[in-house]
Amino acid sequence: MRSSLVAIAVVFVGCRTWQDSWQPVPTTTGKAWHNDKFQQTAFDTNGDGRIDRLRFWRGSGFAQELHDNDFDGWFDELVSLTYEEERSRKPERILAPDVPVTGSKGPYDRPE
């Protein structure tokens, strides 16, 4: 019985729960936030309160990013990356959301 309890405890200790909470992350320019549960990172490089770059981590080294290149509040393109290397770039016209509030929950919509 005791060995079963120890085994269960090891399983629970080894599990990591991913928090659904936007938290600030260090960046060289502007501000950035990351949500562990949804594997999203939002960047506001010019400080206007709207997201300029939104990264969706997809797993296995694959990510997609929406970019607002001209800082007009609209994403202009969708960039696909594999292990930080650009694989494709296509035009998009999607309204860029406001920056997340630290501690708030929920993901941003993913491009499909």
What can you see in these coordinates?
This protein has one domain. The longest helix is centred in the N-terminal third of the chain and has 13 residues, at 2-14. A 7-stranded antiparallel beta sheet has the order 1-2-3-4-5-6-7, with no helix packed on it. The radius of gyration is 18 Å and the shape is globular. The chain is mainly beta and 112 residues long. Helices cover 12% and strands 42% of the residues.
Structural class: mainly beta
Count of helical regions: 1
Strand count: 7
Largest sheet: 7 strands, antiparallel
Average pLDDT, to the nearest integer? 88
Question: What order do the helices and strands follow?
Answer: HEEEEEEE
Widest β-sheet, arrangement of strands: 1-2-3-4-5-6-7
The number of distinct structural domains comes to: 1
Termini separation (Å)?
A: 49 Å
Q: Helical residue percent?
A: 10-25%
**Rg result:** 18 Å
Q: Strand-residue fraction?
A: 35-45%
Low-confidence stretches: 3-13
The coarse silhouette is: globular
